[in-house]
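Backbone description:
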Amino acid sequence: MSNGSRPALERFVTHLPRLAVATAAALALSACGGGAQKAESKSEASADAGTTSAAFPVTVEHKYGSTTIDKEPKRVVTLGLSDQDAVLALGTKPVGAVDWFKEQPYGKWPWTKDKWGSAKPQIVGERDEYNIEKIAALKPDLVIAQYSGMKKEQYDTLSKFTKVVAQPKDLPDYGASWQVMTRQIGKSLGKAAETDKLIADVDARFKAVREKHPEFARKTLVVADSFEAGKYSEAFTKTDPKSIFFQELGFKLKPEIDTLAKPGFNVAELSAEKLNVLDTDRVVWVTSSTSANDRIKAEPLYKNLKVHQEKRDLFVPYQDPDVGAAFSFNTVLSIPYALTEIEPLLTAVK
């Protein structure tokens, strides 16, 4: 599917990415001086001894096997699109991260600004296209790739010079819940107890909104976005973080969306003739511009849908304010912000 004409922001939040291993792998391994197997000096070993806690060693299972982490990681690189949030929430500032929304990950997001402070991680890739040389130059002792589509060859290359915890096993890429990914990250950092508390606190926030709005449980909802003018839009499947967010608010999802999606994708492409699948109790459109909103509202077949005629559709921006971005990330840091922002929008129209 071509996405060359699509605005960058919309393009980066919907499609599963192209996967590629950086061609600089050989240089990366050279830069690491022989990789992770290089023997430590006595002084390094002595320094490391002071950083080992009772939580270690830990072994984390993932898509490509398991990784044993012997001591507390100090230099963490996150390669999942939203992994940095959970790492920050647990008190560690990644030294490297990938870009997603064409925003620096330490940039404007209100839920992470205070956590980053003045720290600025090195950008080491975009989505699943990693710059191996840059990663190696950071000398990480742990690479985390949870909300990712990391390929086996990428994992193997990185594992030659550092510990790598790939995406959760037995789940589709980009298909694990925020709870699963957070627990993987927490275990990797030796902070399982702190992780459980973070998850419990966020779960309690969801529960509070569900109890305040029991009517949500009686409604079916679809999350969609405008993709390419004059061609089609997209609706998100049950494995997408945006859909997961609204399901945890109590809404029911529409199973037809999953049947329309291509295997391996978390979106279903909808031509104008298929927009009737959106005629449900609520539709939440996540878009990047007013012009995109206007295009949707002007589509003749969409104008005929009751969900639109009865004003039960909601148009939410990805940014400015960052509501759509917050539930697209759907992390322990972004969810509280997303809940605060989205609740009054959802209840404005009954």
